[in-house]
Design goal:
Length: about 475
């Protein structure tokens, strides 16, 4: 591939267009012979400072918004208006294949669940389907874990190309606010995009909630194909702005929710660890037994059904497929029980999600609703007291423990939560906290282990120690079982 083919929208100096390019990256450490290096002024570092290193490592050209100092004379330099967007668009040229049907979902909560549900619906309808997001790339070939919800554009376009090559025709994608803000998804041919909800999160990155919403709106204003569809949960308080953005763009609109006109959630009744839901769509009523716990999962299921229908699947089999949903790992997942009390693992690591998870479990607690949770280090500290408050208000017994402390002092994170949850017990060691939560369960109680969901490691300092809430629960259950029997 040549520079001209990679950067069709950039005016190139004479002779540059024919330069052969063997690959591209924005990370000097990944440069190989013949690569295009795109220097990005990032959040922590300035890629321009690594331009010389990139050239020394074999880069044949450097693109950036400003010419980096110290670029050797004669080095091929291309000035671009937006380096991040250039990286993504060039990646889409370098890795040209994409699944024919791509749906993306944004929102503070529910992205992973909606992406998983949409993939499951398509699979049930016989389409070779995949999803990409927080839990990695999930495809008929298996699961490959990646550390970001929306991967770096080069990784993302490589994955799309590989999936298409493997015969995957349908892809559901999580669009994180960071990913949207950093143009990671530009160049992807998105047929339908969904909005779930907006609540406080990531205020360490976005300066305000408005800026956070603006990042999410990019999916609708810039990314969904011009003839595409926006699937919007209109019961969310910020939905009017999303609807407005989609309207201005001329997108087809499918509203969902209690007030939805595309898919209306007409009625919901709890049925054990499942829910009986009446959906209304296009003049038909679909009665579905959704095998999931939590009112919010009804919304996620409706959004996923909306994405499938918007991208051409027939409604009746789509609604029928909802009865078989397995859901994403660690999303209000029943992990076991002790003394007749169910134990759920959930990925709620922000105030609204924690509130929703506790509200979802309240109907099952004729006794006490117990929660074990913490908050991640190096993330918005403002959410800590808010999570403490939520737990204090919505649970009967609160155990505050560590999540991923990262570079922070774990005791200080716990203290910030405890300040708003004065009745809580503090147990730093997460395994011990889970043990205490389970050991205290009586019939009628319910335990929620919140914050880490599917994660298999605990980030302490710069180290990732093996840790999984699923394993921790299983170990305690095994130990307690042994003790009960002896
Ligand atoms: C804050 C943030 O989003 N950072 C992401 C961003 O980094 P950045 O572009 O700002 O990079 P930087 O570290 O300032 O470096 C600037 C440039 O210098 C380059 N560099 C740097 C060092 C060097 O030796 N050589 C070199 O070339 C870097 O490759 C980069 O291009 O772009 C990188 C490449 O895509 C990401 O790996 C990185 O994710 C960091 C690790 C991260 O933790 N991100 C989290 C917050 C994140 O993105 N989360 C979202 C949301 C999750 C959710 O919704 O809950 C996600 O999508 O996962
Ligand atoms: N529609 C929803 N409304 C409110 N809370 C939800 C919703 N869906 C999920 N949650 C809560 O948020 C948690 C995370 O859900 P999920 O992983 O599907 O969302 P996400 O948007 O991918 O989150 P993340 O950005 O952390 O990856 C769940 O474990 C649950 O507690
Ligand atoms: N993608 C989210 C995941 C948070 C998970 C939680 N366990 C934590 O560490 O805070 C983030 O990086 O903010
Ligand atoms: Mg996610």
């Amino acid at each position: 591939m040549t520079l001209g083919e990679l950067l069709p929208e950039t005016a190139l100096a004479p002779g540059f267009a024919q330069i052969a390019v063997a690959g591209l990256t924005s990370d000097s450490r990944k440069v190989k012979q013949g690569f295009l290096f795109i220097a990005i002024a990032g959040n922590k570092a300035d890629g321009g400072a690594y331009a010389l290193k990139a050239v020394q490592a074999g880069a044949v050209a450097v693109a950036a918004e400003h010419k980096p100092d110290g670029l050797p004379p004669g080095a091929v330099f291309i000035q671009v208006a937006n380096a991040r967007r250039t990286l993504a668009l060039a990646a889409s040229k370098f890795f040209p294949r994409q699944p024919g049907v791509i749906a993306a979902v944004t929102g503070t909560s529910g992205k992973t669940s909606v992406a998983a549900f949409t993939r499951e619906i398509w699979s049930a309808l016989g389409e070779p389907a995949a999803s990409i997001g927080t839990v990695g790339v999930v495809s008929p070939k298996g699961e490959v874990y990646g550390s970001l919800t929306t991967p770096d554009p080069v990784d993302l376009h490589r994955s799309l190309d590989e999936l298409a090559g493997d015969g995957v025709t349908h892809l559901a994608l999580e669009a994180s606010s960071h990913g949207l803000d950093q143009y990671r998804l530009d160049g992807i041919r998105i047929a339908a995009g969904a909005y779930t909800n907006l609540s406080r999160d990531h205020l360490d990155y976005h300066p305000t909630l408005e800026a956070y919403l603006a990042a999410k709106l990019r999916l609708f204003t810039d990314l969904i194909a011009a003839n595409g569809t926006a699937v919007i949960n209109v019961d969310d308080e910020h939905a009017p702005q999303v609807v407005e953005a989609a309207r201005q763009r001329g997108l087809k609109l499918m509203t969902i929710g209690r007030r939805g006109e595309g898919i209306r959630i007409a009625d919901v009744a709890i049925d054990g660890f499942a829910q009986r839901v009446e959906f209304a769509h296009a003049g038909h009523i679909y009665n579905v037994k959704l095998p999931l716990v939590g009112a919010f999962q009804v919304y996620n299921a409706a959004v996923a059904a909306g994405l499938a229908i918007a991208t051409g699947s027939a409604p009746a089999p789509v609604f029928a497929a909802l009865e078989k949903l397995a859901g994403a790992k660690g999303r209000l997942e029943l992990a076991g029980s002790y003394n007749g009390a169910p134990i759920f693992i959930d990925y709620s690591h922000k105030p609204d999600a924690l509130a929703k998870a506790l509200e979802a479990l309240r109907p099952y607690a004729s006794g006490h609703l117990v929660v074990v949770f913490g908050a991640g280090g190096d993330r918005d500290p403002g959410k800590r007291p808010l999570m403490g408050e939520v737990a204090q208000q919505k649970a009967d017994r609160v155990i505050v423990t560590d999540d991923n402390p990262r570079s922070e002092e774990p005791a200080e994170i716990r203290a910030a939560i405890l300040a708003a949850a004065p009745g809580a017990t503090e147990i730093g060691d997460r395994g011990q906290a889970i043990r205490a939560g389970i050991a205290g369960l009586r019939p009628g109680d319910v335990l929620l282990v919140a914050g880490k969901g599917h994660e298999t490691g605990q980030i302490v300092g710069a180290q990732v120690l093996p840790f999984s809430d699923h394993e921790a629960v299983a170990t305690v259950l095994k130990d307690l079982g042994a003790r009960v029997r002896s």
